[in-house]
Model the fold of this input.
Amino acid sequence: MRLWTVQHHGAVPVLEKSGLLTGDWSRVASGLRPGYELMLAEMRRRGIDSAGRPPVWAWAGPDSRDGRVLETARSLLSPLEWEQGVVVLDLEVPDELVVTSAYGWWNDVLAAVLSGEPLPSMDFSTGPEDEREDEFRIQAVLPLVRLDWVRTSRPLEPPADLVEAWPNLRAQPFGPTAAAPNGAARSAG
Done:
C-alpha cells in the first residue's frame, strides 16, 4: 500500500542507523493514550504486532508534493516541531501491516478521550466517499517503518504564514534531507 507520513527530522538518521522507525510513548500525550490503545486493539485484532509501541501514523496515497501534504502537516504539528524540522517519507508498505480508517472518525475518538466521554464505536470502514472529503481523508496506522519501505524522503518547509506568525521558525528544516532504501542519504527532489 502506498502511504506517506510526516516525521520529525531525526527519523532519517534513525532509519539509516537501525533500519527501523517505531512509535514511542514518550511522544504521545498521556491523555491521548486511550485513543491510541483503541487503535492498537484493532491492530492486534488483525494480527498486527506493534510490540507494545504506539502506531506510526500515515496517510493513504503517495507523497503528492502538493498542498494536501503541507496542510495535513500544518494541522498536526506544533511550532516546536516545525522549528526542529520535519520530513515527509513516501512509503510502500505491505497491505497486511496497515489499518486504515477515516480521519474524521479518529477526531471523534480524540474528542471523546479529551472530554472524558465514552469512546465511540470502532469504525474502520473506509470507502471512495472518504477519499473525496478532506475532513474524512484516509489515515493509516502501521507498527513501524522499515528503511526498505521508503521510496523517497524530503524535508518539508513550513507554510509561509506560519513562518510569519512564528518569527523564530526556521525557513529550512535542519538535519538530513532524505533516506534511500539502501541506507544512503539522498535528496528526493
